[in-house]
Amino acid sequence: MLRLRDTARALAAIPPTVVDLAIAAAVTWLSLSTAAGSYPPSGSRPFDALAVLLTSATGLALVARRSWPLATMAACAALVAVFEARGYWLSLNQLALQLAFFTVASRRGRGWTALAAAVVYPELMYSNIHEWVGSAFNIYLGTAVRVVAIGVIGDGARRLTENHALTADYNGQLLLKQRDREQRAVLLERIRIARELHDVTAHHLSVIAVQAGLARFVLETDPKTADQALRTISEVGSEGLAELRRLISLLRPEEDDSGAGADDRPAPGIAQLPVLVERVGLSGTPSRYAIAGRPRPLPAGIELCVYRVVQESLTNSLKHAPGSSVDVRLEYEPEHIRLTVSDTGPDGHAAARTEHPRSAVAQATAHTGSGVGLAGMRERAALYNGEISAGRTEAGGFEVRLILPIDACEPEAADPGAAQQPALNR
């Protein structure tokens, strides 16, 4: 079976021009060798030089059958007509004529096939009526059956070729669509990675900047506070490097096959929110974290989405409303989880900022953002069919509201104190 397939592939790889040359040479050689071997009674005229010339021209005309099927058909029909009219062997060149007719049927429409059949049939009949034995009706019918059979086979070959072309075109379109999907997947993955990098670096660097400014501000007057700020910088830096290492390990997993340098810690989730809020509180932003409803296990993707939204919201508060009070509230509902992060705005705690050194440092290190964070939060929410809104409050602060749908399920039994977690005040 493999040999047959290899042979078929080898034959299919032969250029069409070479195939046509071989066919034309074979038909010409067969006609000339047959004429040289015997001369039938139907050929009253001797096979002279003109007969050799006509026979050779009829066979060689098949070289152009693939490129110009109609012209080849016309040339073969004309040469055979002259050959028969001169009284040579009537059926000698019928093979070339029928092959030219088959080419028209296999490469042109049915209209051209019918026209070619109208030309071929009389020439074949003229030969068959002199050579075939039997009634005239049978000869007419037999010739018609032969012409129709050649036309039907040729038409079937044409439709098969068209189907193959349509299949190849369809496969090409599928391949293009597949490549487009792959490119789109790569683009979406790049966007996801860029969003992760933005969330990780923006938050951690903002906290580090605020804590570094605080440490410098109170280095001589309050060494204990400066030491705590430096410890926070160390913790935040290590945590940021760990998250970056985790992202890099996802991008280049082949380098971590041995397990060396791989970070096995899971992605951050809701359990890490208290630490996140507390750390922001140490940066001079009074913060409060509360949970309502009965906590339950959530998919890792939803937990990461909630964590990143809180992280980005707190980062924006550090940047644009330094020293303001921030409230983070997480509510568990039967079919949704609702998150609200709100601050009091840059003017909400002016007195506190002027009285506390941390607030003064936070205000000094504030800077404008690019707006990428809000777009990233919207993309995250859309990924889980959630809704997110962000905007100014009536009191002049800023509020981010996130609603994520979750499967309605019975919360696991938890200890009574977990149903309503005490608020963390900073």
UniProtKB/TrEMBL annotation:
Its EC number is 2.7.13.3. It catalyses: ATP + protein L-histidine = ADP + protein N-phospho-L-histidine. One of its GO terms (cellular component) is membrane. This is histidine kinase. It is an enzyme of class 2 (transferase). Keywords: ATP-binding, Kinase, Nucleotide-binding, Phosphoprotein, Transferase, Two-component regulatory system. Residues 306-408 form the Histidine kinase domain. GO terms for molecular function: ATP binding; phosphorelay sensor kinase activity; protein dimerization activity. InterPro entries: HATPase_C_sf (IPR036890), HATPase_dom (IPR003594), His_kinase_dom (IPR005467), Sensor_HK_TwoCompSys (IPR050482), Sig_transdc_His_kin_sub3_dim/P (IPR011712). It comes from the Bacteria.
